[in-house]
Amino acid sequence: MARRTGRGFGTAGPGEKLLRYGLMLVVLVLTVGPFVWQLSTSLKGLGEDIYTRTPNFVPADPTLANYGGVADTIPVWSYGRNSLVVAAIVVFGNAVGATLAGYALAKLRFRGRRLILGLFLATLVLPGEVTIISQYVTVRGLGLADTLLGVALPGAIGMLNVLLMRTAFMSIPADMDAAALIDGANVWQRLVHIGLPNVRGMLSVVVIFSFIGAWDDFLWPLIVLTDPENYTLTVGLQYLNGTFSANPRLIAAGTMIAFIPIVVVFAVLQRFFFKGVEEGAIKG
Amino acid sequence: MTHQRWFTPWLLVAPAAVWLAVFSLWPSLNTVVLAFTNAKPLGGGRFTGVENFARITDDAQLGDALLNSVIYMVVCVPLLTLLPLLLAVLVQRKLPGISFFRTAFYTPVIASAVVVALIWGWVLEERGLVNGLAQQLGVLSGPLPFLTDRWLLLLSAISLTVWKGLGYYMIIYLSALGNVSRELHEAAFVDGAGPVRRFFNVTVPGVRNTMALVSVLISVSALRVFSELYVLSDGTGGPGGQDMSVVMLIQMYSRGFTGHLGYASALSLLLFAVTIGPMLLLLRLNRKAA
Amino acid sequence: MRKGWLIPVAAAAAVLLLSGCGLGGDGGAGEDVDASGEVKGKVTFQTWALQPKFTDYVQGVIDAFEAAYPGTEVEWLDQPGDGYSDKVLSQAAGGSLPDVVNLPPDFVLPLVQQGMLLDIEGADDKLNADYVTGGIDAYRYTGHNGVYAYPWYLNTDVNYWNTELLAKYGLDPAKLPTTVDELIAQARTMKKESGGEVYLMSRKPELGDLANAGVPIMAEDGKSFVFNTPEAAAVLDKYRAAFAEGLMPRDVLTDKYAGNAELFNSGTVAWTTGGGNYITSLATDNPTLAPKVIPSPAMGTPPLYAQGLSVASGSKNLPTAMALARWVTNAENQAAFAHLVNIFPSTKASANDPFFAQSDGTPSGDAKVIAFTSLAQARMLQPVEVTGAMSDIVKQQISLAISGDASSQEALDAAVEQCDKLIGQ
């Protein structure tokens, strides 16, 4: 078969680049448009109508006053700190718990494995709408009502994350494990030296998913927390939507404030796991 | 063949298993018990036998809801198994500004339901963006009722699911793509395989496990669809409630103080039974392929 | 073996379901509760979505209470607007209801059924002397003796009209419609003049509209529904014809109550209904629209919206809780509240306050006066027995009737049948 001439594998030609950027721009408009609108609303002054027939994307008289307004109305910093505490517990729990369980379910043979796996899968299917009150009674029984730990606990090991980690460990070729086994490595050594380096990508996915889940949750923290001092950001932002007063500009600004940390976490983490993606984590 | 002691795997699984038992299995068992009562959120639970299940068989809305869920699944599974994979391949290559695009594509996943509702309302309503453009271009003579027609509303909700799902599953695929051997790609390239053939001969087999997982997740979440239909119909379930999904029905019956928890629990069990089917099927396919 | 695990599970579930029941026993039902002890010590006080706008007001009321009763301490919790029913539900299920808690009438019934709230009428002889009957009656429940909250602030609906749109499309803002038939006739004019660009009506009928037409919603005993009468069908038929004629946007089929306010705010619709404070909030949402809006009295019987302060029967400090609830709802404190925002006191002493009967000449001031005078006839149009699910089912069936997918009578029959099944549960 004739060898290709010209550019080699792995570098994109100008035509391909153009095509890729073109496609990406199309997807960009579809995915980011809503946020541009939200951002623009948060920058609109009191003199400008929000609900008009045709949405106006460019504020006539941009102002940062709404952001100041949010900070004046509610203690954004302490609510943000509470949200961070909850998110940190949830991320830690998932990173450790889901990794350990995922590894055991993917790579170790033991009695009851199929049963456990089946139970994990089954819980994915049960709608949580009916169970939220009984979860609250459980958390209260543990003495964790009105604490940030109580908010974090139920989500601290997500069953979906266990399954994601299991899938990642499954795709490590069996001969790599076998080789380590011959060298006499124990379970822990195999997990740390062969397992973990090869699932960094999925691990960052799990971290991101659990961070977002913890950060965005509204109903559950609202139920667990009573003292407004303990409120997380999503719950606290609801104060902007008071009984006789709802200013959509403030709400938009509040939403952007809650949104920014998620984008930051994602933007930071994506470096780690896309690096893995580009290098190809497993050498054939 | 192993050096492991019998309890080692259990030590690793233990934390997750405890969580499973306390926060999933226990409430689930509770749901099973509740399904045979006429419980309200505050007391009053009395054993009523199979009364709730008898009502299920004669709930006209449930028929609509099941049909909606099946349509949802049939449309979403192929779309969301393939499109995010293509998107992942598109952003896999390191190009200037790629981090920005990757992050941007993920933003719909993080959007709050309120924002999504506002925006999509404007895009799809009778005087919204889509109708306006289509009429200006002469594609349509009058506006289409995207949000107030039983079938169009379902279609709109599906588009919204796909919109949100693109970024979510793209990430799962991206991490899986990292595991596809670069050497295989290079070998195929040397053999003269074009991008399309490399996609089908190297990429797809390389992420087959992930595709199976993704399609399981999509079918389960399609059968359990809630927020998209809820948000686009403003919580009403479309004209006459014909666009309810099963989860929307459960939410309608279990909501708040006055919830009919018994019937909602019976509906949950039904949904569980319906969802477990496709899941077992896909798992079997997965095992055969592997 | 099977049974071996089923029984503990069932027992535990029963405990879960009944948790909270043991709290107050039967708190009401004429039984005399001794709430007359010394007013001293700590109580918790929960309000709904009053922070941050009314933080100063509420804190001021609390500080004055603590000063008036030395040795008392009030812990104030204000809960956000969204998710309040879930919040109160979890507090009730967990046995941690605050001592004094702000509740609308429909939240109170399930708590009363569990004996979790104190009968105020039984504990306070002066309740009927000091508070307006409408407010008190909002907290009476069929099958339960007594009154289960101090009525707090009240509100009702007022019609709001966009005068600019009316004038532009051939209608006279001085001759606003006062009946449904007039409304439909004017909607026809507006549709014709605007070429279908602007609507007058954008709301489908609800249970309240049926009640307004004289249709009984429930049977006398409160155990079954009876609103599937030919009169009710005739009301729906009017709207159905109006919808078919294109006098309402298609959105009415799927809109919740707030939908028509949104359309009004965006200038697509010329009529909406809202509380006495609507223009004030419109001034923030859409400042250019607010000056063009004028109010008029609601058509038919105005709806009553009540807020009240209930006292938990499980409270460890009943005397102080009672004193606080009474303090917050006393004439002086309520009047001060009503001067801050267009809401209305539930105390008889405020009924003669000239402040409420005199407009400052602005549309917002007119709305205040209209709402205040309407309150005299206002009543709760939807029975508290209607659960969330029932209310959804009724809306869906009415939507089917309006869209023409079912006849009005069929839709009403189906709604009544399903609601009867649910209430039997």
UniProtKB/TrEMBL annotation, chain A:
PROSITE patterns according to UniProt: ABC_TM1
An annotated GO BP: transmembrane transport
Domain ABC transmembrane type-1, first and last residues per copy: 80-269
Highest taxon in the source lineage: Bacteria
Membrane topology type: Multi-pass membrane protein
InterPro entries per record: MetI-like, MetI-like_sf
Similarity comment: family membership: Belongs to the binding-protein-dependent transport system permease family.
Protein name: Multiple sugar transport system permease protein
Automatic annotation (TrEMBL), chain B:
Primary residence: membrane
Location of this chain's protein in the cell: Cell membrane
Pfam families according to UniProt: BPD_transp_1
A cellular component annotation (GO) from this entry: plasma membrane
Record's keyword annotation contains Membrane: yes
GO biological process terms held by the UniProt record: transmembrane transport
Domain ABC transmembrane type-1, residue spans: 66-282
Annotated transmembrane regions: 7-26, 70-91, 103-123, 151-174, 207-226, 261-283
Keyword Transmembrane among record annotations: yes
CDD domains with a match to the protein in the record: TM_PBP2 (cd06261)
Domain of life of the native organism: Bacteria
InterPro entries: ABC_transporter_permease (IPR051393), MetI-like (IPR000515), MetI-like_sf (IPR035906)
Keyword annotations from UniProtKB, A to Z: Cell membrane, Membrane, Sugar transport, Transmembrane, Transmembrane helix, Transport
Membrane topology note: Multi-pass membrane protein
Family: Belongs to the binding-protein-dependent transport system permease family.
Protein name: Multiple sugar transport system permease protein
TrEMBL record, chain C:
Gene3D superfamilies referenced in this protein's UniProt entry, alphabetically: Periplasmic binding protein-like II
Tagged with keyword Transport: yes
A Pfam entry, by short name: SBP_bac_1
Signal peptide (from-to): 1-24
Alphabetically ordered keywords of this record: Cell membrane, Lipoprotein, Membrane, Palmitate, Signal, Sugar transport, Transport
Protein name in the entry: Multiple sugar transport system substrate-binding protein
Species, as recorded: Phytomonospora endophytica
